[in-house]
Amino acid sequence: MAKWCHTLIALASVVPCFGGNPHEPLGQYQPVSNVIELAQIALDVRGITDAAHHHDFTGAKHIYEEGSNSCINATSRRSLKSFVSSATASQHLQGGAYFDSFTNGAGPSGADAIPGPGRLPLQPDFWDEFISSALDGTGRFSNKSETSRMVAVKKGILGVITMYVSHLLETSIALAKENRTGDGDGALHVWDAAWALYYGACGEGCLEHCVTQGWCRFSAWEALKKRDGDHARNRTYQRVEGTILASSTVENYFLEGQRATRAATLDVPALIRVRNNIYRMFSVNAIRATLRYSYAMNRGNGLKYNSLNELLHMQAYTYFLAAAGWIEQSAPGSGQHVLQLLDFQQVTGEVPLSLHCDVKATLHRAYEPLGLDAAKIGQDWAIPETFQCNSLPVCPTAPDLPLGLPGYAAHDTETPAGAKLDCTSSSSIMPSTSSIMPSTSTTTTSSMDVQAHMCALEAIEIMGAGAGAVNGVYHKVPNRQNAEVGRTALTECELCATWQNGQWQVYVTNSHFWRISGTDPLSYYYDGVGHMMGPPRSGDWDYKTEMNGTKPDPVVLPARMFVPITGQEEACRGATSTDNSNSYYELVAASSLEECQDRCLSQPQHCKGFEFSRGRCEIWTRPEGILSSYKLTGFACLRNDLAPVFSPVDGGKDRACRGATSSDNSASYYKVFKGLTLRDCQSECMDEALCKGIEHSPEYGNNGRCEIWTLSHGIGSSAPVAGYTCMSYKARPLTPPLV
User: Fold this and answer.
1) Within this chain, do residues 708 and 630 fall inside the same structural domain, yes or no?
2) Distance CA 739, CA 464 (A)
3) Which intervals hold domain Apple (predicted)?
């Protein structure tokens, strides 16, 4: 059979040839089969992480249970819950060495048996019970704070992935035993899938939008990389001699396994050794995280956290749980004892100061049977060198670890490159990538709806300058044909917009004809069958009667216009896609996107836009407005493009406003108001027709001192003054510019 390779020629990008691998590398590992969709699970992890971080447990639960970014096929999504549900546990996970070490199982027999005698007594669906209870605030989490629940979800889903990776590894070994080694459907394909799931896809721009150093990809592999930064590197990120660089080591083990699963180099005993080495790296990560956070939670300021912190308590427990069974099998009683020491149902403030040393002493007993020692684990650089635990068990030096197969590359394969599937559109809360609002109608959107909808969108782009515009036709688009909108193609439609005697007139024709008008720019639009493609406002007409060629009466349109940041499903952000703070918005309940928008419109001077996701509504009041977004399935972010904008001058914080230079200051430049909060100061500015900006300090009066700057040429400079904030002001135009 011909192999496939990339070739740059004029008429084709992929042609059959001998040699070559068209599959995109995942780190140093290049799959020889299509595992794109498994890697996409990392994007679900990021979505759940973001939702949980904002205590949006409903949104996080939806992604966990329904899936979002990883497709099984063109119509079905893969969910994280499906990896560890009760059905999956009983039908697929039970009998695996890694899984059975957690659930008191026998594991496989023969050469791939569980190496040690220890077992934990956890129930088969322990991971699903843990995550689901944290999401719902039930069971063991019924009396836990939202902070504890958040951490349990964010770190627990990494344990879910680790567990399912182990299942894929052991499935690959079982296929190899049967000599099923096809690149596309045999042991090698499943081994590739395990690495793809563990390493994860990197979404668009993810490396530029890291949460912290080394935390960009949101995958279980990246958690190893983070702990490498604590234990295998020092404060200046230099390598510490003798420590394990687990993120590289585990990758080399996966590469060794990839070679051992190929038909020409099939080696089942090697695969079993590699499996155990990979599980050893899972254990290294759990041990390092547990040592780090057990110290921080009640010793802690070396990690810049407050002591007795429940956030750290839950991190210590959850990270350890991910490998507790494999540690238990190596040294019976060790995993169980550490879980008891870290039990998250304890009151964090009552955990004894001996916790870290108690945990460390227990783990030392597991080092030798795991083939580890203290030097290989390393000392967390954030724990002071002067801090010592007394009476630790003797920890013998372990032999050097196997290297794996660094640099191995699978250059040839019979499988063609795959492509990302699209199975997510059915869950979208936005009707199409170009839409601003979902329809309020319960009627299913037809192709004709989409046609007129797109024609009206065109009107938004071409509206003129409003009052003072010259009467006449401003734009006409004849015969827009076959423009693609999602999966629906347009047929003919025609559009023109006119300004006539102080009124907008927008005409759209396809098989329908209708008219809308108003003195303000078009901000909501109507489809060709009378359905409003945005929330009803004054002058709306009866949907049932204005059909098929009938002209509705003119509609007065609202002045506010909400627009998406990119037109995709996304969450709102400040200056960048990672700029998010609870101070930027007010969290309110809303049953629909339209209700959320109404809540925004009820604060016209302050609301810069809103974010909505399944009953959760953020009213954004950040003075600088919404300037960026973060792609997130199930979320809508809409900016009020007519909202006034306050911009910090020279950073804003600890700056006092000045005129042309930093020394140009005069009482004639501003009006002074006392007893105003920053927000009230902004409101006062917006009520002042000549306002160019504000200066505010909370140290005066009951709430603060407010200067409303009215200097004709505005605030041109600032001076450093502690406790002051200087912001320039620019009102949004009432109409967009003439195109």
Assistant:
1) no
2) 6
3) 572-637
